[in-house]
Amino acid sequence: MLGVILAKRAWVRNPFGYQPWRDKRSYAAMFDILEADIVVFQETKIQRKDLSDDMVLVPGWDCYFSLPRHKKGYSGVVIYTRQSVCAPIRAEEGITGILCPPNSSTSFSNLPEEEQIGGYPTPSQLASSAVDATTLDSEGRCVVLEFPAFVLFGVYSPANRDETRDDFRLGFLDVLDARIRKLIAMGKRVLLTGDLNISREELDAANAEASMRKQGLTGLEFVSTPARRLFNHLLEGGKVFGERDEGREEPVMWDICRAFHPDRKGMFTCWEQKVNARPGNCGARIDYVLCSLAMKDWFSDSNIQEGLMGSDHCPVYAVMKDRIHIDGEEQDTKDVVNPPGMFSNGERVREYSTANDPLPPSGKLIPEFFGRRNIRDMFARKPSIQHSQSTDIASKDAEVSDAKGSVNGSSAIETTSTKADSAQALSATAPVASSNDPSVAGTKRPIGEVSNNKSLKRAKSGSSATAPAATGKGQQSLKGFFKPKSNTISNYSGIAEEPVVSEANTHDAIWGPDLEPVAESLEDKHDLATPTETASPLSSADGSSRQKVTRSGTNGFQTANSSPASRSASTQDQATVHDPIQSKESWSKLFTKPAAPRCESHDEPCITLLTKKPGMNLGRSFWMCSRPLGPSGAKEKNTQWRCQTFIWCSDWNPNAANGG
DNA sequence: TTAGCATGGCG
DNA sequence: ATCCGGGGGC
DNA sequence: CGCCATGCTAATCCCCCGGAT
Questions:
Q1: d(CA A204, CA A271)
Q2: Contact assessment for residue A331 and residue A340, using Cβ atoms and an 8 Å cutoff
Q3: pLDDT tens-digit map of A49-108
Q4: What is the pLDDT of residues A400-435, one digit of tens each?
Q5: Interior CA angle at A28 toward A284 and A290, to 5°?
Q6: Where is the composition biased (Polar residues) (predicted)?
Q7: Which bases in strand D are touched by protein, i.e. have an atom under 7 Å from a CB?
C-alpha cells in the first residue's frame, strides 16, 4: 500500500507543459498516474503568491509546503497526501524545530510534547554547528509529516556546490542525521525521502572513477568525503572507512531502492541537464527513499522511474505492503497511516473531514485557499458529485482507491522527487533501459526503435518529445516495459471531486496573512555551484574496472525478503502488483500525440496560460491561440493575429477531441 | 555528455 | 500583459 | 616532422525574476 516517489522542480510549478500530464492537467490526475498516495516534490521554486488552486486545492489530497523564507524562486518542498489512504497526525516544517506553526510564535521544539513530532537537536548540538538553526531552516528544504506508524521527511538537501556552501550543507545533514537518530531512539520509525544530493558510493555515480582519479582518492576515500561519510554511517550496509564516528555508532536507516536492486549499475536518479547526460545515463543516484530498520520489510517494491523524462531528476518510489508488522503485530497499513479511529482492519470507520482533518500547516488552510474549492471542479464538465458534506469525500475517494487496489493489489505511497524547476520535468519520453544487466549486456535495447544518435538529442522543453533511444549503458529493468499492461490508468479516471468545503468554521487564520518577514539577506547571493559530487568529465565507466570493494557490511544490501527477481529483464514477469513502470508504458502512448487543442483560425496548437486576475477564475488555466495579439488589440477572426480560441483547460479533453 | 586543445610517446 | 536580458542553480 | 593516445577544460541547460515595452 503506499509508495513513495521523489522528484524535482517543474512538476509542481509547471508540469502541464509536458506529457503525460498535458492530457489531464491536474495534479490529482498526475498523482493517479503515478499511482502514488504520498508525493513529495523538491525544488518547487514557488513563492506563496504563486500558489494556485491547481496546486493547493487538489481534490482528494492535502498538501504541506515549505517555502524559502527570503530567496524567491528557490528551493521549496511539498508533500501531498491522498486523503482516502492516509492522513498525517502532525506536520512540521524544517529540520531543527525552530520554525513555528502557522500564525504562531512558538517553535515546534517548544510545543508540548504531545503536539510535536520531536527529536529536535539539542541546543548544544545546534550551537556546535557553523550555521544557526534559523538559517538552516530558512530555505524551504524540509517538510515533516507524522503518521502513527512513522515520521516522514521530505527533504531537499543542499547541493554540493562550492566551499562557501559547505558549512550549510554539512550543517544541514548533521542536524538531519541527529534528528533522525533521535526520533528512532525515541521509538519512532522514520521514512526519509527526497533529494539528498549525495551519491552513496561508487555504484551510485557514473563519474565516480573519474572523480576519484581527479581528486586522487581511493575507493575508501571516496565514500569518506564528509557528506558521503555521514550518509554511509546512517545506512545499514553503508561503507564506513575506519572507526565509526562518535554519535553514529550504529546505522539506523535502510536504503529501500538499493535493497531491491543490490548490484544494479546505472541506477541513477539525476543527470546533468546542461550536458544532456541523461541519454548516455551518465548520472548519479542522489534521490532516495530510506526507512528506519524497523520498517525494512514493510515494502514490496522500490525502483526509479527512469522513463519519466523532463527533469534532470527522475522519480524514485517505494511501495508499502498492505499489511505490515509493527511492534510484532501484523496490522493493516491503512490503520496506522491515519489518525487513530479512522480505519480499522483496513476499513474506513470515520470519514475524512476536509473541514477538520487537515493539520495547521496544510496548504488548504492558507487564508486564500481556506474554505474554497478548486475552481476547476466547479466548471468541470464531468458532473462532479456535489457533496454537501465534506465527509463524503473520503468514502468517495476511497472507492477510487479500492478500484485501484483491485488492479494492483496494493496502493502506493509514492515520493516523487523531481526537479521542479527543470522545464523538462515531465516531458516524459519512452523509458530507456538496458544493458548493464548481465542478461542484456551487449545487446542494444532499442526500446523505442530509435537508434541513431539524433534521438539522443535533448528533448526540447515543451515539445512532446520523441522516444529516446536506448544506448549501451542505460538503466536496467525494462521489465515493466514488456509487461502486458493492465488498465491501471483508466481505473483512476473517476477521481473523486472535492466538494465545496464548509465555509466558515473552526478555522481561524492559522496561516498568517503574510509570510513572516525574515531578516533581509542574511547571506548574499553566493551559492554558486561547482559540481563535484556528481559532475565531472571522463569515462562513463561501464563499471568493468570498478575496483572490488569489500562490502564488509553488505548485509544492508541483501535484499529484503520480498525482493523480486528484478534483474532479469527478459524473464517472465509475475503479473505483479503495482508496477509503476507499467504505467509508463501507458504513458508512452500518450507521448505520441500532442494534446494541445488547435485554434480556430489557424489550426495551430494552442498555448496555456494561467488566469492572474483576481476573481472567480484566479489560478485557472486555459488554452488560447498562440499567435500574438494583433494591432487592433483584440482577438480577431481569420487574420494572422491571435484568434478568439479560448478553452478552459478543465474543459479540454484531447481524447474526445481527437476522436480517440 | 561532447568538442577542442595541449601534451607526450613513438616512428 | 508580454518580451527580453541578467542572474542563479547544478 | 606527423600521427595518435591521453588528459584536461569548457560549454552545453533550464528556470526565475525584474524592468522595459
A1: 12
A2: no
A3: 888 888 899 999 999 999 999 999 899 999 999 999 999 999 999 999 999 999 999 999
A4: 233 222 222 233 454 444 443 222 222 222 221 222
A5: 35
A6: 407-438, 531-575
A7: 8-18
Nucleotide nearest to A541 (CA to C1'): B1
Which positions of chain A have pLDDT values less than 70?
1-25, 310, 376-599, 602-636, 638-642, 647-660
Phi–psi pair at A348, nearest 5 degrees: -75, 130
Q: Which nucleotide lies closest to A195 by the C1' atom and the CA atom? A: C10
ipTM of the complex: 0.90
Interatomic separation, CA of residue A281 and C1' of nucleotide B2, rounded (Å) = 14
Rounded Cα gap, residues A64 and A86, in angstroms? 14
Q: Decide if A421 contacts A12 (C-beta within 8 A).
A: no
Measure CA to C1' and name the residue nearest D16: A73
Nucleotide nearest to A47 (CA to C1'): D16
Grid coordinates representing A71 are 530567496
Handedness of CA A579, A581, A582, A583 (dihedral sign): positive
> Exposed e or buried b for every residue in A301-340, given b needs 16+ CB within 10 A?
bbbbbbbbbbbbbbbbbbbbbbbbebeeeebbbbbbbbbe
- What's the pTM? 0.68
Is residue A538's beta carbon less than 7 angstroms from any atom in nucleic acid strand B?
A: yes
Give, for A551, the enclosing helix (H) or strand (E).
none
Surface-to-core class of residue A371, CB atoms within 10 Å of its CB (0-12 exposed, 13-18 middle, 19+ buried)? middle
Beta strands A343-344 and A347-348 are: antiparallel
Q: Is the CB of A274 under 7 A from strand D?
A: yes
Task: For residue A152, give the 3-state DSSP assignment.
Answer: strand
Task: Sort strands A7-9 and A417-419 into parallel, antiparallel or unpaired.
Answer: parallel
